[in-house]
Amino acid sequence: MGLVLRFLVLFVVLANYLCGQGSAGASANFQQRFIVDMPTAGLLKSNSVALDADFFADGGLMLRLTASAFNRLNFGISYGGTEIIGNGNVNWYRLPGVNLKIRIIDESLNFPAIALGFDSQGREGYIDSLKRYEFKSPGFYAVASKSFKFLGYSSVHGGINYSLEKDDGDKSLNYYIGFDKTIGKDITFSVEYNFAVNDNSANALGSGKGYLNAGIRWSLGSGFTIEFNWKDILVNKDPGNSRVVKLEYIQGL
After folding, report:
1. Structural domain of 27
2. Total structural domains in the chain?
3. Mind listing the pLDDT tens digit for each residue in 114-170?
4. Residue 113 is part of a domain; what is its CATH number?
């Protein structure tokens, strides 16, 4: 864990020497693509790429590479595992994750942006016996996002999703909502509630409370953003609360 902290300090110091914005704050140059874990209708700009790195419990690391060939279409791949940082054998994910998002309606004054997508990448560790991640992947989803200008910017999000991780016997259609608010030009606070109705059967991990997650994002410099997330605040599953650090870098081609 000390190695991770040293890396994060180095990341912050180097990024602050750069100019420009990441994807957080009122002066953000890039759209926010996730509330905390669940997708928004936000996309990368045309001809740009993003690299995300999630650091989580048990020495876990997940990398996601996303590209945009057009303004309305993003696609990417992800992979990771636990025990990558620390001692012991690495527990790699069973398969790489793939994701695709297309925005079918752009946001207007009186109507939200709407996007459709597929994302097979769950969050945190993979549980072989249940063939699922600790936090299930979105799978197929539809999401709407609407922004408002008031003391900076705020956005509300609402989505439905159907995860393909259903070997625990829970095949329900799921729902989620979220909200984010800029704090000054560099910081955004986000909160999401994943109803997790696809994770509350007898063999599932959830207990029916849903997953309440919150995070704070900070734009550090040209395309760099660092994010600190607090997940499962309601302790919907054992062991409950988890803390995740995420780094994001976006670059136009």
Report:
1. 2-252
2. 1
3. 999 999 999 999 999 899 999 999 999 999 999 999 889 999 999 999 999 999 888
4. 2.40.160.40
Within 8 A by CB and 6+ apart from 183, the residues are 25, 152, 189
Query: Do residues 51 and 65 make contact, with C-beta atoms less than 8 angstroms apart?
Result: yes
User: b vs e for 229-247, b when ≥16 Cβ sit within 10 Å of the residue's Cβ?
Assistant: bbbbbeebbeeeebebbbb
Nearest 5°: the CA angle 177, 101, 166 is 65
Q: How far apart are CA 68 and CA 52, in angstroms?
A: 14
pTM of the model: 0.89
CA torsion angle 184 180 4 55 (round to 10): -160
Could you identify the residue written with the tokens 């990441």?
22
**What are the C-alpha distances in Å from 136 to residues 119, 128, 132, 163?**
10, 13, 6, 7
Mean pLDDT score of the chain, rounded to an integer? 91
